[in-house]
Design brief:
3 domains; 256 residues; binds magnesium ion; binds adenosine-5'-triphosphate; alpha/beta
């Protein structure tokens, strides 16, 4: 059972030691990684995914439950507790969605058909366009793909740690996704530029020039602001949908 992941600081792009020496991520934590382009956000989640142990350019080390990552986790993909979902996922498989999930359910768990149903159900709650069991994997849109991968990691993979690299622009219902995913008590790490995701996280890691610079715990004031922000975000989502469907926009549609 994984209770904590510890990131031990290494060095930034310039080779100087990172300002933050140690960060603990706990079960149930929702964490954002923020920072300018090129500041090392993707690098940081890649270090987590690889269970870096001084063997990546950052020299960071990852501990599980305070200890070095056991060999059986490091070397056996079957036991891998981490699911990384990136923007660049493409499928080699052209199987129908239901067959792909069924195969995965047989590898990771008992293969029961309820797993496929639950996964599809969750994916369709996360994403605006319905995914049908007979859709082929390669014909899914970006948003459908990400929603399916998240649902697959949660339900079939049963992964305790889910890393997401900038998935917000992919037609995912952010707020609903955060709410549903929180119920699963996973450790979730979002690389994000999105203020809604950031302010709904428990804390955020601020990256600068390849280094972990600061940890900011979301304040009560920020949480209150996030509620207001949600309204604005929903307004924007609604406008996006309207424009997509070919409608025209009037001034009254834009006033929050
Ligand atoms: N600590 C580090 N030491 C050495 N190289 C680093 C370090 N951190 C990041 N890099 C390198 O810097 C480059 C940019 O990092 P990365 O892709 O992680 O940035 P990012 O914050 O994800 O940017 P974007 O927002 O554009 O996706 C990469 O080539 C990465 O390998
Ligand atoms: Mg990146």
């Amino acid at each position: 059972m994984i209770e904590t992941i510890t990131i031990l600081g290494g060095c930034g792009k310039s080779g100087d030691p990172e300002p933050l020496k140690e960060i603990d991520l706990k079960n149930g934590d929702v964490v954002s990684i923020v920072g300018p382009t090129g500041s090392g956000k993707t690098m940081l989640i890649n270090d987590i995914e690889l269970f870096a142990y001084g063997d990546t350019p950052t020299k960071r080390r990852i501990l599980i439950n305070g200890d070095e990552v056991p060999e059986e986790i490091r070397n056996n993909p079957h036991n891998n507790p981490i699911a990384l979902i990136t923007q660049h996922t493409t499928f080699l498989s052209d199987l129908p969605v239901c067959d792909f999930l069924d195969l995965h359910a047989k590898i990771r768990q008992d293969g029961g058909s309820y797993l496929v149903e639950r996964t599809l159900d969750l994916a369709n709650q996360l994403c605006g366009e319905n995914i049908l069991p007979r859709n082929r994997m390669t014909e899914l849109s970006g948003g459908q793909t990400r929603a399916l991968l998240i649902a697959d990691a949660v339900v079939i993979g049963n992964s305790p740690i889910i890393l997401l690299d900038e998935v917000e622009n992919a037609g995912i219902y952010k707020e609903r996704a955060l709410k549903i995913l929180k119920e699963y008590q996973k450790m979730m790490v979002f690389v994000t530029h999105d203020p809604v995701i950031t302010l709904f996280s428990d804390f955020r890691i601020v990256m600068r020039n390849g280094s972990m610079k600061q940890v900011i715990k979301t304040t009560e004031k920020e949480k209150a602001a996030a509620e207001e922000l949600k309204r604005l975000d929903n307004l924007l989502m609604g406008l996006r949908e309207k424009i997509r469907s070919g409608a025209t926009i009037e001034l009254k549609d834009v006033i929050a």
